[in-house]
């Protein structure tokens, strides 16, 4: 990053090359075109969801306009009970995840914590683990009295077998935070890397302590990234389904998403209308948070990357660096390695959850690798993942550019629209996609899945770019433009090199989402399309967890291969001299 | 140019095939050979079913392909996902699924809403002398729609031997009222068509409100992870599970013997569960669907089901792989002849909802 920054001022002049300015038309067309595209990808499906709340049947089915769905949901005290329960879980979960992610990112980006690349890799790896098998592994590890962890604790400490209970508020919060922290780390870490170190140096030169520097310099500069990732984390917590579905019910804990599921699928006839009302309530809640975010950030400058290049010395934590190392490693061991080991062992057991030598078998691996449909699943998943991530990066990059770098009148609307697919629980949004996209000629092919995944990934990727872009000084672009560089040339030669780490990060994020996401794929993939996420889900929930574990490991392997490949390509391109 | 011609050719073929299919259906008394011929012309069948493709579904699909040269496309999915997708496809005029198989309550819901169509006469369904567990045409004959019954299974009571030794353990559903089982029971949450809903509906119908209240008072926890629950019993997490099917219990049968659990065949009767199949409205390959529906009733296809440990089947003349998991074929059915039509219809949900106030009173639900 610092290398890219160091010569940026001179490069701006070279880029300009004295050519006349020709980008005006594109500058005007870009926001308009983007808005139309995002409206098609987001507003149209969202519109179907809104319509569904006022329709007495599922969209497309004979019915009448009605307010009954709203009346029944808002008149039911259970709606507000589950909303409260969801908040009781989501708020501490979000705060915990945010604190963990920020501390981890700060240690790795700005201090002399040992083995930083290893720690970063381990946290990224945790993001790759599929949710459903991960939760099932925790049911095995953390069940009261009989869970493996409890048994080990019981052997160490008298009465220790009752210490951990995943079927509790604590279980839901801690496990949820452990799932969210690696995702938030991916947001906060690049922002910390991109931060101008001269500010920290100046604070330290002025006699500020390390902690005062963090509080007064790092934290305020991180505010955009923290707010964005905090909101994202809160939304993820509110729409989390697998964890409360499996761990909440035994403890009589029911949340917003389990309520949506019950309404949509639990009755005599699916009641999508009421489920959609609940989903829209969540959308309003998230929309309000975004408005708060705008207000908090309004009128402040967060630019930390400018034409000046500087790389500061990392903060010396002294002996504390080993504590930081141990904490991050410990987090990985407990929440990443342990469930992963359980997953791996399960894949070699005759029966998942019963780990012993006499239950050992390689049959599940042999079955999976010898099946044509599994190979097709791998092929389709890879194709969809690569296409969705690549398209998604392009669209999100331009959305973030328009939102942060232009004065176009509709930019806030565009920003808000891009949030849509994330602010509505996947269970319901996937119905919106289905009803919207079933009319397209590409329905039933891989491409309709790609489109929906691009839309589903927009909030994450655009947030990723936005939090980085607000840190970049406008002087870089202005310098190139003053020298006559066209908009396209400026974008390619100034913006892209600066955003390269963010592009790589966003691509990986989108690729992982595309490979792992289930709700959209389950409804849109035709009978001729196979996706690993669907196979894992179906095999796991129908009692073939051993085979599901094999597929989950294959899926994790695919994501790791994608991650490593992109990092290698990125390293190669970063090593090339700037033009 | 070639592509255009090919497309035109395909369109004509499709039109001819559709016309042939319609014609065959219109005849009413057509010979089975004509149906098979029309099915072969259609060439493809899209089979949607609850759950994941398993050994039995794949073997049946393969055998059917070998027998008739008709390709079977598997479209697995949960009830809600299937309905959402299929409804949207129909609204857009793109219905892609021919048949849906699931538990009979789901199939009967389809039939009750007139979302299926008649499948005509299937030779295998009227073959004389077949020892059916349930007549596959029970609903059709009763005028209750067009659901074909294709498999049978049963619910049992699963008990951990250590937490609840055989000497004082439950022998029937009625026994579960005893306060000595307090804090031992994990119950499948009665919601939607879950096993817990089935228990609540059947038990309420047979024993009334007081029974539901007493049993629910003994429940320690509800679960939505019915697939995990038998393993939780085997591990000793809970003492009694209400209530796994023979398929659910088949998993833990793989554990080394002696098993730390036992499967209780309730003395007051086995709650039976039937699997159904419907020929869907707007099915793009109706004749292939009919030939397949006929095929699944044959002894060969049913034996494939029975070859899976705990696999459900509807003919008694097959050999189950694990006989201890096949008591449903011979055991006494639960009172009031369960799984009559009303159990699969709206009433089923009304009856299972009887558990709701007791679950709330026991603090198991809010």
List the defining traits of the structure above:
heterodimer; A: 579 residues; mainly alpha; 25 helices; 74% helix; B: 366 residues; alpha/beta; nine-stranded mixed β-sheet
Tally the beta strands of chain B: 9
Catalogue the unreliable spans of chain A. 1-24
The shape of chain A, in one word, is globular
What is the beta-strand fraction of chain A? under 5%
The main pleated sheet of chain A reads as: none
Average of per-residue pLDDT values of chain B: 86
According to DSSP, the number of beta strands of chain A is 0
Assembly type of the shown chains?
heterodimer
**N-to-C terminal Cα separation of chain B, in Å?**
66 Å
Uncertain spans of chain B: 1-28
Instruction: Give the % helix of chain B.
Output: 25-40%
Q: Bin the strand percentage of chain B.
A: 15-25%
* Largest sheet composition of chain B: 9 strands, mixed
Q: Write the element-wise H/E pattern of chain A from the N-terminal end onward.
A: HHHHHHHHHHHHHHHHHHHHHHHHH
User: In angstroms, what is the radius of gyration of chain A?
Assistant: 24 Å
Span from first to last CA of chain A?
16 Å
- Compute the average pLDDT of chain A: 80
As a whole number of angstroms, the C-alpha radius of gyration of chain B is: 22 Å
- Secondary structure class of chain A reads mainly alpha
* Structure classification of chain B: alpha/beta
Q: How is this structure best described in words?
A:
- The complex is a heterodimer of chains A (579) and B (366).
- By secondary structure, chain A is mainly alpha-helical.
- Chain A has helices spanning 2-6, 8-16, 24-53, 68-74, 77-110, 116-128, 131-142, 148-156, 169-194, 197-205, 210-239, 242-248, 256-265, 272-297, 320-347, 363-369, 372-405, 411-423, 426-437, 446-469, 474-482, 487-516, 519-524, 532-541, 545-575.
- With 366 residues, chain B is α/β, with parallel strands linked by helices.
- Chain B is built from 14 helices and nine strands.
- In chain B, strands 1, 2, 3, 4, 5, 6, 7, 8 and 9 form a nine-stranded mixed sheet that branches.
- In chain B, 54% of the residues are buried.
- The model of chain B is unreliable at 1-28 (pLDDT under 50).
- At the A-B interface, helix 13, helix 19 and helix 24 of A face strand 2, helix 4, strand 6, helix 9 and helix 13 of B.
């Amino acid at each position: 990053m610092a290398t890219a920054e160091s010569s940026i001022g001179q490069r701006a002049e070279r880029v300009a090359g004295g050519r006349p300015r020709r980008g005006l038309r594109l500058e005007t067309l870009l926001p308009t075109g983007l808005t139309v595209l995002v409206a098609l990808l987001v507003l149209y499906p969202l519109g179907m969801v809104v319509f569904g709340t006022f329709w007495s049947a599922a969209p497309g089915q004979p019915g009448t306009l009605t307010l009954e769905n709203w009346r029944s949901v808002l008149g039911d005290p259970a709606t507000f009970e589950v909303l409260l329960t969801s908040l009781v879980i989501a708020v501490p979960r979000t705060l915990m995840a945010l604190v963990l992610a920020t501390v981890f990112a700060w240690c790795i980006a700005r201090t002399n914590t040992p083995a930083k690349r290893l720690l970063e890799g381990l946290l990224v790896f945790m993001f790759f683990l599929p949710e459903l098998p991960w939760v099932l592994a925790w049911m095995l590890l953390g069940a009261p009295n009989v869970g493996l962890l409890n048994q080990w604790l019981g052997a160490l400490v008298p009465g220790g077998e009752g210490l951990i209970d995943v079927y509790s508020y604590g279980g839901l919060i801690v496990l949820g935070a452990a799932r969210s922290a690696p995702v938030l780390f991916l947001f906060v870490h690049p922002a910390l890397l991109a931060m101008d170190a001269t500010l920290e140096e100046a604070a330290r030169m002025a006699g500020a302590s390390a902690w005062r520097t963090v509080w007064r310099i790092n934290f305020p500069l991180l505010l955009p990234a923290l707010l964005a990732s905090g909101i994202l984390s809160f939304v993820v917590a509110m729409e989390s389904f697998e964890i409360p579905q499996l761990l909440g019910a035994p403890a009589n804990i029911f949340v917003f998403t389990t309520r949506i599921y019950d309404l949509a699928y639990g009755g005599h006839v699916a009641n999508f209308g009421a489920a959609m009302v609940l989903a829209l309530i969540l959308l309003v809640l998230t929309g309000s948070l975004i408005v708060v975010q705008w207000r908090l950030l309004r009128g402040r400058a967060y630019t930390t990357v400018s034409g000046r290049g500087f790389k500061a010395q990392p903060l010396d934590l002294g002996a504390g660096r080993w504590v930081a190392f141990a904490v991050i490693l410990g987090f990985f061991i407990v929440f990443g390695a342990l469930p992963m080991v359980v997953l791996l062992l399960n894949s070699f057991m005759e029966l998942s959850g019963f780990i012993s030598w006499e239950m050992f078998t390689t049959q599940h691996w042999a079955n999976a690798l010898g099946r044509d449909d599994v190979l097709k699943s791998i092929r389709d998943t890879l194709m969809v993942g690569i296409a969705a991530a690549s398209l998604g990066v392009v669209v999100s990059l331009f959305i973030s550019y328009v939102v942060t770098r232009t004065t176009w009148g509709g930019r806030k609307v565009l920003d808000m629209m891009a949030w849509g697919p994330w602010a509505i629980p996947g269970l319901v949004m996937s119905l919106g996609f289905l009803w919207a996209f079933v009319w397209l000629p590409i329905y039933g092919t891989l491409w309709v899945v790609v489109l929906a995944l691009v839309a589903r990934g927009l909030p994450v990727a655009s947030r990723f770019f936005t939090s980085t872009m607000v840190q970049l000084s406008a002087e870089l672009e202005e310098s190139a433009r003053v020298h006559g560089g066209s908009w396209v040339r400026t974008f390619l030669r100034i913006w892209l090199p600066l955003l390269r780490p963010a592009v790589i990060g966003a691509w990986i994020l989108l690729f992982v989402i595309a490979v792992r996401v289930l709700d959209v794929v389950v409804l849109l993939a035709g009978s001729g399309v196979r996706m690993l996420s669907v196979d894992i889900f179906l095999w796991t929930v129908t009692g073939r967890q051993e085979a599901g574990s094999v597929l989950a490991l294959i899926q994790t392997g695919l994501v790791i291969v994608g991650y490593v490949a992109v990092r290698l390509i990125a390293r190669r391109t970063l090593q090339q001299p700037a033009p | 140019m070639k592509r255009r011609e090919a497309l035109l050719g395909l369109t004509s073929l499709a039109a001819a095939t559709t016309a042939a299919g319609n014609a065959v259906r219109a005849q009413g008394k057509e010979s089975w050979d004509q149906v098979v011929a029309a099915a072969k012309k259609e060439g493809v069948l899209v089979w949607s079913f609850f759950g994941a493709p398993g050994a039995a579904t794949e073997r049946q699909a393969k055998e059917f392909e070998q027998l008739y040269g008709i390709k079977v496309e598997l479209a697995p999915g949960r009830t809600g996902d299937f309905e959402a997708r299929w409804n949207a496809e129909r609204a857009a005029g793109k219905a892609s699924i021919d048949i849906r198989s699931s538990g009979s309550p789901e199939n009967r819901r389809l039939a009750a809403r007139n979302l299926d169509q008649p499948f005509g006469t299937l030779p295998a369904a009227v073959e004389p002398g077949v020892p059916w567990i349930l007549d596959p045409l029970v609903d059709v004959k009763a005028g209750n729609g067009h659901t074909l019954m294709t498999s049978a299974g049963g619910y049992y009571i699963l008990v951990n031997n250590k937490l609840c030794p055989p000497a004082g353990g439950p022998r029937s559903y009625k026994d579960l009222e005893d306060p000595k089982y307090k804090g031992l029971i994990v119950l499948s949450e009665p919601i939607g068509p879950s096993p817990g809903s089935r228990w609540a509906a059947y038990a309420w119908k047979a024993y009334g409100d007081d029974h539901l209240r007493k049993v629910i008072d003994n429940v320690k926890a509800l679960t939505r992870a019915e697939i995990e629950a038998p393993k939780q019993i085997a591990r000793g997490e809970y003492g009694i599970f209400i209530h796994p099917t023979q398929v659910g219990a088949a998993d833990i049968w793989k554990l080394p013997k002696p098993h730390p659990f036992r499967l209780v065949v309730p003395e007051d009767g086995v709650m039976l569960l039937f699997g159904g199949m419907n020929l869907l409205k707007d099915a793009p390959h109706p004749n292939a669907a009919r030939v397949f529906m006929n095929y699944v009733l044959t002894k060969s296809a049913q034996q494939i089901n029975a070859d899976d440990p705990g696999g459900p089947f509807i003919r008694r003349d097959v050999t189950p792989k694990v006989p201890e998991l096949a008591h449903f074929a011979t055991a006494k059915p639960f009172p009031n002849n369960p799984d009559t039509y009303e159990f699969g219809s709206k009433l089923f949900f009304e009856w299972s909802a009887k558990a709701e106030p007791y679950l709330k009173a026991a603090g198991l639900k809010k």
